[in-house]
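The following block was generated as part of the benchmark described in Methods. Ligand: 4'-deoxy-4'-aminopyridoxal-5'-phosphate.
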Amino acid sequence: MNHQPTPQTTAPWQRAATGANLLGADGSIKPTIFEELTALALEHGAINLGQGFPDTDGPEELKRIAERSIRSAFGDGGLNQYAPGLGLPALRDSIVDHQRRFYGRDLDAGRNVLVTTGATEGIAASILALVSPGDRVVTLSPFYDSYAAMIGLAGGEHATVGMRWPDFAPADEEIDAAITAGTRLVIVNTPHNPTGTALSRGTLERIVSRAAEVGALILSDEVYEHLVFDGPHLPVAAIEGAAERTLTLGSAGKTFSLTGWKVGWVTGPAELITAVRSVKQFLSYSSGGPFQAAVAQGLAYDDAYFRGQADRLRAGRDVLVAALRSAGLTVSDPAAGYFAIADVSSLGFEDASALAYRLPEELGIAAIPVSAFVQPHEARHYSSLLRFAFCKREDVLQEAAERLKRLPELMV
Ligand code: PMP
Ligand code: GLN
């Protein structure tokens, strides 16, 4: 367990950039690692296994519903004017039905659900609503970059629980040591980006019971909920003692392969949703109506649709993990999500970050160094790890497998 105090003397935007490791020593701000490596991939015509987005769109039917909603005129089912701040009633009802069907949760569409502009806005609004300057916020590490940026913006003190290669299971003692008295918020992410870990029931119980002991709230980012390869997803809110203190995030981006639509949602206790809503209404006021209408239909798809998504991703994982292993890398066994982690030291490379900047040009592949997802003082534990995305078509992954065969040659 470690923490990085947030400097209070800098401007809020600098604190956000510092939180996400994007502030240069000369005061310059770097783009996010996703943007930077996607640009490099485009420049060199590389296969982009860096930024996590699918290379096929979600269901045609959902695209048609969004299109129809855009085409209809005001008063004729048209949704081109402001949607309600909480989200379209049809989508909120659909979120409630989906939570009941998959997890047996009983939510009220008027009090327990807030639609957001992607899970990203849900993360921002939740942290800004709940974290005061000096409050301790605990995340797992590696962590998704926007948590750190928003903790920095809110002036929180960011402490972490390490997930260490190769199994990435957080140790109970680290959980206990990190979630101390004075902790305001614990951010959980399961299934986890970047490691592909689905946190075990034991780990979640430990986190929830510590949070309850010290009176901390929980923000659980479950955007990969439908991409668990073996067995059902275990939501944090289903753990005993969690529901009354937990806000849960979902996203149409991952569930329907529509990452550009930016439709997300937050569910949880009415008083917490009210708090998050009061910030959300001044961030975006409301989110895009036509896309919400389509996602409302998507969440009602039968179970086979959702299973199909996990099956497709599992097949992609199998192709990519096999390719990385035949290239000589040691690779994790991701249980869920979009990503696999490879240790490049098994081929003699020491600095995965330096390698990530060479790969697009020299191998025609882009990947993200895991050190981009940790605090600077933790980077040494992750310096030889690269994250590869497998949310791509099979022919693209096969071509990546061909290119990876040349990876050992880059050592000379
Ligand atoms: N949380 C995690 C863990 C993610 O990986 C992502 C996106 N890749 C998001 C949140 C953001 O979701 P959205 O695109 O819905 O804003
Ligand atoms: N969530 C995506 C990833 O982890 C990237 C989203 C972004 O670029 N902010 O790759």
